Amino acid sequence: MDFKRFLINFLSSFLIVLKRSVGLISDPYRTMRKISMERDSYQLFIIAGLIFIYFKFIYFLRDKAYPATFIYFIFVLDFLMMVGFFYLMSKFIGSLKNKKEISFASFIFTFSYSLLPTLIWFLSTSILYVFLPPPRTFSLLGKGFSIFFITYSLSLLVWKLILIYLALRFSSKQNFFRIIYMVIFFLTWFIPYSVFLYQFKLFRIPFI
User: Fold this and answer.
1) Which end of the chain has fewer CB within 10 Å, C or N?
2) Tens digit of pLDDT for each residue in 121-130?
3) How far apart are the first and last CA of the chain?
């Protein structure tokens, strides 16, 4: 593949990522359904590249105990563990229900796009750290900012939960109660694992 064709494919995929990102806000159900059938690997590299740039950015912004590339490697490992867990759980449950059309690629694409709220929140908090570093005052303006930030964070959290549910809904092809069961089972080992990462100062909040 020559460079010109690579550049065209890359730009086309970048525009698709932008379009899908907007779609996940305006119409998350239909957009995530399309993403679950996606096979354009360029989109995955673009999302992964944006996250890598963020880790490089935050490394120079704050003092970190570990290099940015190492932290990024841990993130990739966490992401693959999460995707692998839900894929294997879905395969197991699907085998009991004679469902064998579950695709690992579908999990990769849907969960990659579900990282967008996470990336936006981490990036925005890092930018705020530059312009409004702690400690912040208890003045009227300071309290107003705190209320805004909590509302903003909760909005992104709700969006994140919606995307996670839709990712599991379309990739695992399971109903609501089985999805909740898988999520609870996932949290039983992921929460202690997150505490482990925090103790070693790798992540205060897991980047997933």
Assistant:
1) N
2) 999 988 887 7
3) 33
